[in-house]
């Protein structure tokens, strides 16, 4: 069964407004903070958080998913682990501006998937402070390891005035020049 992970299913439950109002206590965009306060977050989102004058508490499905994320699988050997999150991958990158439509850039990450059921992709990095920042995620499969070289590609609208992007990955954050 598909299990919830922080980056894909839990972090998007929090609005900028929630984060701003709760910063006096913890940072709802911070994995470790949400993990540390998970019991209280589960209690309060089922009851009175977000506050009633700002949209009100979560539907039970969201609270259930949050709890499922916090608890993990019944058997930790089989998984999923409690507080599951994605891994970062490593890759080499190119960013090439389209010759006909100058507003489009094809960004390619050459990666090695560690098994057939593992997936690697990149997406906008919500934790980055500057625009045109991306993060290279790895969702590790539990199948038998086998290296699979793969090119992951996204065609992204990036204004002509922008000359580089950044990619956050397991080996750090790299600046990739747009050619
Ligand atoms: C999903 C969003 C939110 C979550 C998970 C959340 C969670 C919590 C938790 C766990 C506490 C108790 C902290 C403690 O242990 O001391 C708390 C308290 C508080 N929260 Fe939130 N909150 C959310 C959204 C908001 C919003 C939108 C507001 C204001 C508009 C707000 C205002 C407060 C205030 C004033 C307190 C302290 C008073 C109290 O405990 O009732 N929260 N919240």
Account of the protein in words:
The protein has helices at 6-10, 16-22, 31-36, 38-45, 60-71; strands at residues 87-88, 92-97, 104-113, 119-124, 133-139, 148-157, 164-169, 172-177. It is α+β, with helices and mostly antiparallel strands. It has 2 domains: 6-71, no CATH class; 87-177. Strands 1, 4, 5, 7 and 8 form a 5-stranded mixed sheet that branches. The longest helix has 12 residues, at 60-71.
Which stretches are poorly predicted, pLDDT < 50 over at least 5 residues?
A: none
Judging from the principal axes of the Cα atoms, what is the shape?
flat
Strand content: 25-35%
Distance between the termini: 42 Å
Q: Biggest β-sheet, characterized?
A: 5 strands, mixed
What is the count of DSSP helices, taking H or I runs of 4+ residues? 5
Mean pLDDT rating: 95
In short:
This protein has helices at residues 6-10, 16-22, 31-36, 38-45, 60-71; strands at residues 87-88, 92-97, 104-113, 119-124, 133-139, 148-157, 164-169, 172-177. Strands 1, 4, 5, 7 and 8 form a 5-stranded mixed beta sheet that branches. A 3-stranded antiparallel beta sheet has the order 2-3-6, with no helix packed on it.
